[in-house]
């Protein structure tokens, strides 16, 4: 009998051991944001209507048709007059950049934002265990992460990663790397540094598909401090719930829709093709399909299944009208049932509008992305954090709220993740000194009022007016 009980107890104890190990591993796989710092360049790097006019006029490769195209693009871009450009633009050397320009642009951001976030969190650079840096269009030797390690004299066993060529979705790819490192090591600190170097990537040609990027991209960056130490959870701002990455690089059309290349004259630039909206939509739909079951209530998923079955049944019966107009693709799922706030990449007005229609979002939901695009422009992979900071500054983020981040990038990729707000937030980060000014009464760009006369010019007699300074 004693042998019987012994044989019975052993598997029960083993089961408890397996359960205990699972709970322990789950605890150690947590990922928290302790703090983050968005970069705000100095006012002498601010880009207004006058300065943009000067930069455009400096490009002698542009003709009247290109000026008209730029006017239309800038007016409809959603970008305001307080975005920032790299210093090389203000010295008029965008046609002949040096490697030093790109490195100094990044170092100016690094040493401002990293220093601030570490100081505010009370963390020494010597305590950083993992460093991930993503700057898509600048590769330097030594690497950018090495420059940071050297400047802050970090430990020799700091695990460093540099990401290049990942585009605007690189922040969440960097986050995924950190999460995977956290799975193998307990109680660690990680620093995620995300930005884009524009100094060497200003297009000075006249190819329309490559001029467009000049209208959208602006300087910015963000340093994020993360940990998997559960003892620090009450000090944290956000807790990561899940992350989903979708990559359509195997599709030729998606791969080539957003690519760095040279034009016919050998001038380097960033080509945005007409197939970009289609590629973005496909990757977005696939990403939503993967993340929806992870973040939405069971009842909402069941409702969606029932509605989908009814629609399919009606189609089989032929009750659906033929030739009905096809509008923008909608998710069909009520994401608001599992998400409180939407942190959308500021890829452009069309990107924000498209996501808004697809997810049936209100203007209140889209306001953070719209205002971020207006104030800071498209700061590439760091744009998500400016949007998040806007929500914080507006005191929207309350304990228990869930924030869905959505980003797109060359390749073509769509990445998303869900954060849970750990405590009430309201500091505002980069917005705190000016948040009362937003949203403004209008987001209309003043370019049309100043340069609208270009639309009426005759190509055969076109010349800038004598009093034209911009």
TrEMBL record:
<dbReference type="InterPro" id="IPR013601">
    <property type="entry name" value="FAE1_typ3_polyketide_synth"/>
</dbReference>
<feature type="domain" description="FAE">
    <location>
        <begin position="26"/>
        <end position="312"/>
    </location>
</feature>
<keyword id="KW-0812">Transmembrane</keyword>
<comment type="similarity">
    <text>Belongs to the thiolase-like superfamily. Chalcone/stilbene synthases family.</text>
</comment>
<dbReference type="Pfam" id="PF08541">
    <property type="entry name" value="ACP_syn_III_C"/>
</dbReference>
<dbReference type="InterPro" id="IPR013747">
    <property type="entry name" value="ACP_syn_III_C"/>
</dbReference>
<keyword id="KW-1133">Transmembrane helix</keyword>
<feature type="domain" description="Beta-ketoacyl-[acyl-carrier-protein] synthase III C-terminal">
    <location>
        <begin position="337"/>
        <end position="420"/>
    </location>
</feature>
<keyword id="KW-0472">Membrane</keyword>
<keyword id="KW-0012">Acyltransferase</keyword>
<comment type="pathway">
    <text>Lipid metabolism; fatty acid biosynthesis.</text>
</comment>
<dbReference type="Pfam" id="PF08392">
    <property type="entry name" value="FAE1_CUT1_RppA"/>
</dbReference>
<keyword id="KW-0808">Transferase</keyword>
<dbReference type="InterPro" id="IPR012392">
    <property type="entry name" value="3-ktacl-CoA_syn"/>
</dbReference>
<dbReference type="InterPro" id="IPR016039">
    <property type="entry name" value="Thiolase-like"/>
</dbReference>
<feature type="transmembrane region" description="Helical">
    <location>
        <begin position="5"/>
        <end position="23"/>
    </location>
</feature>
<protein>
    <recommendedName>
        <fullName>3-ketoacyl-CoA synthase</fullName>
        <ecNumber>2.3.1.-</ecNumber>
    </recommendedName>
</protein>
